Amino acid sequence: MKPIITLLRLAKMGCLSRRPVPTYGAGRVFKRAQLAALSLVFAAAAPSFAYAQSFDAAWQQLQQVSDKLAASSAKVDRARAERDAGEDMNLPELSLNGSYTRLEKPLEMDLRDLNPLASLDPKTLPPALGAALGSIPGELFVTPFTEQDIFRSSLSAMWPIYTGGRISAAQGIHEAQLAEEEQQRELTRRELFTTLVDRYYGVMVAAELARTQDKLVASLEKHVEHAKKLEAQGQIAKVERLNAEVALDNARVQASSSRRQYEITELALRSLLKSADAPSSPLFVAPREPSLPMLAERTQKEHPALKLLDAKEIQANGLIEVERGAYKPLVFLYGNYTLYEDDSLFAKMEPDWMVGVGFKMPLLARDGRSGKVQAAKSALLQARHTKAQTREDLSLLLEQSFRQLQQAEEEYRALASSRELALENLRLRELAFNQGMSTSIERVDAELKLTAVDTQQLGAKFRYVQAYARLMAISGQLDEFVGQTRLASAVGEQQ
């Protein structure tokens, strides 16, 4: 920052010591001088700033490099993927099943356990028949149904055809969640926009204030030198010279603080944009005051916070439908197709495929269905009340920002006459000082008054831009603000 101060100090001291300050007709030459001095500030600040960058270019760059906006976009992508995944709930479920089972013993059937053999008493049979039956081996009466080790594989399918509205409600919730994240991303985008306005133009204001403080230091240094000469000649007392030195020391402290503030604002902008480009779009005052009723209408219709709460309300309604669906039956189609089975009798008896219709009706559940329905209704009421409060807050914020815009513009325009008076006063004091008819103190005081008016006017213009940016962000007219910055840059180049 030292090169900045040196350049400005030498330039101002040269101008103040050689010729009186002229009166500028429409103020264009003075504006050019201010822009030139501001350019010196940015040029001397290198390598902190590399190239000039318009506000439009800075805004486009911020949308590309902002991690906060990228994180919000990632949440939108996640919600979109979940929405797309919810569409699959309408499809049937198909699964491949396989199993291996080892039984304690194979399943068998002994004919001797069935009637009429089971009810026969060998003692009551004729001896010849009893002997014949007794001569048959026992394993001939046993029929095996399965092996002891069973291997099976199959395809099974299930397709819900009625869920009590739970599937459609869940899909509606996913759609509303996507809308919520999209509106949250827009809120993040508008927040970044106002942050950029504060930091972008804050750098320009801090640079101009640093220039003003350095100009003050240069003037007071000249005043101190003049006071020392007057003291040596016995024209003023020692206390007058000490007062001048104290004022100079205080001015140097303020100048150092202004330089530090400039460095802080520059660092904040560089961190936001991830670049070292210098701001080039000037502060401006719009030629026409925006219409408050039009801004209010656009805000109430299109503000993302209200659309976000609309999505919350849709989610709450969907949650109510989901919980109510728990009281309704679930109807589904199902089927099974056997892919592999062993060669047992039981496997031969079992069909290779089967299809059917099933339903499930909960009669008594322990999941607190009634409580969940009531909780969903409370969530719906919460969303509605929050939306109503948000409408009031937006109206208040819009009204406050509009009043701040008017106040800043009125202050900026009212200071024009004060600045004209300060310029004329400085011109006369400069002439009187050069002719020995005015003291250095009077001349410095005149310059300080001009500096104070310039500082107040600069602050008013900065507050105007901030309020204008908030109005455009609230009403969703970011492009309107960018258009005003382009117009201001074009007017500045013509002047």
Automatic annotation (TrEMBL):
InterPro entries, sorted: OMP_efflux, TolC-like
The keyword Transmembrane is annotated on this UniProt entry: yes
Localization per Swiss-Prot or TrEMBL: Cell outer membrane
The protein, known as: TolC family protein
Coiled coil start-end: 391-425
Protein family (similarity comment): Belongs to the outer membrane factor (OMF) (TC 1.B.17) family.
Keywords noted in UniProt: Cell outer membrane, Coiled coil, Membrane, Transmembrane, Transmembrane beta strand, Transport
Gene3D superfamilies (UniProt xref): Outer membrane efflux proteins (OEP)
